Amino acid sequence: MIGATIKGDYIEQMFSEFLTRLVRPAPEPLADADARLALTALLVRIARSDGSYDRAERDTIMRICSGRYAMNTGEASALVAEAEQLEGEAPDTVRFTRAIKDAVAYEDRLGVIEAMWTVVMADGTRDPEEDALLRLAASLLGVTDQDSNAARLRVSR
């Protein structure tokens, strides 16, 4: 039990330090592992935004992580589990997304918007809450409406 408490405290401290770095006034570019975690947490946030985070959405996020980061199922599952925890502790979407914008290259942010559209459509419906959060996130990530719409069309095919 003591080992679990120490591990839990370590993980909580790790997330706290990560979030502090992420929301600094001028965050440094994220290391690959940190960028993966932050971007996956954003996918989890979009999936949870309609009040339902179902198996299809989680599986879609795992598939995105597996393909995007060349991960096996176990690695993708571990990343998604960490991202789920981080998303629950992350600040409001405005600060969280702006921090990602400052720390992640535009091309990577375009890929995130495409992945977000994939998650939105994973359960077969475009929920108004998901649409609204995606539009907000795209804007805060500095992605134009045209680029976001193009990403949605690529995913819809």
What does this structure look like?
- With 157 residues, the protein is an all-alpha fold.
- The chain has one domain (2-24, 33-156): TerB-like (Orthogonal Bundle).
- Helices cover 77% and strands 0% of the residues.
- The protein has helices at 2-22, 32-48, 55-69, 73-89, 93-103, 106-120, 128-140, 145-156.
- Helix 2 runs antiparallel to helix 3 (55-69) and helix 2 packs antiparallel against helix 5 (93-103).
- The protein starts with a helix and ends with a helix.
Any key phrases for this structure?
globular, mainly alpha, 157 residues, TerB-like
Topology (SSEs and partners):
Elements (H helix, E strand, L loop, with lengths): L1 H21 L9 H17 L6 H15 L3 H17 L3 H11 L2 H15 L7 H13 L4 H12 L1
Helix pairs in contact: 2-3, 2-4, 2-5, 2-6, 3-4, 3-6, 5-7, 6-7, 6-8
In short:
The protein has 157 residues and is an all-alpha fold. It is 77% helix and 0% strand. The chain contains 8 helices and no strands.
Element order, helices and strands? HHHHHHHH
* Proportion in β-strands: under 5%
Number of helices: 8
Low-confidence runs: none
Query: Largest sheet at a glance?
Result: none
Molecular shape: globular
CATH top-level class: Mainly Alpha
Mean pLDDT: 82
Label the structural class. mainly alpha
Global Rg: 15 Å
- Strands, count: 0
The CATH superfamily is known as TerB-like
Question: What's the CATH architecture name?
Answer: Orthogonal Bundle
Q: Quote the distance from N terminus to C terminus.
A: 50 Å
CATH fold description: TerB-like
Number of domains: 1
Residue share in helix: over 70%
